[in-house]
Amino acid sequence: MADTDWKCARCSRTGAPLEKAPYPGDLGQEILNGICGGCWQEWLKVQVMVINEYRVNLADSKGVDVIEAQMKGFLFGQGSLPPEYVPPVSG
């Protein structure tokens, strides 16, 4: 498949997908097959905010469930920022 045939599920840019799954299991494969590197990097920044805002404990399976749900929402859905999040004003 040529690079221009592949399109990111989140941003719709064409190009090349990630080189390897950035997350384990089926979700990692779904990300590998459908998400570009730029969107994955955006998620990594948002993930830090999600962990801090929701006080997610990644050592707990419930915490992992929260992160996975937010990850799916951000990468494949409508976004996942906490409702109370206000972006910083630049200027």
Strand content: under 5%
Inertia-based shape? globular
- Main sheet? none
Number of helices: 3
Judged by helices, strands and strand pairing, the structural class is: mainly alpha
Calculate the terminal CA-CA distance, rounded to whole Å: 43 Å
Low-confidence stretches: none
Estimated helix fraction: 40-55%
CA-based gyration radius: 14 Å
Order of helices and strands: HHH
Describe the structure.
The structure is a single chain. The chain has 91 residues and is an all-alpha fold. It has a domain at 37-80. It has three helices and no strands. The chain has helices at residues 25-34, 37-54, 61-76. The longest helix is centred in the middle third of the chain and has 18 residues, at 37-54. It is globular, with a radius of gyration of 14 Å.
Indicate the topology.
Layout: H1 25-34, H2 37-54, H3 61-76
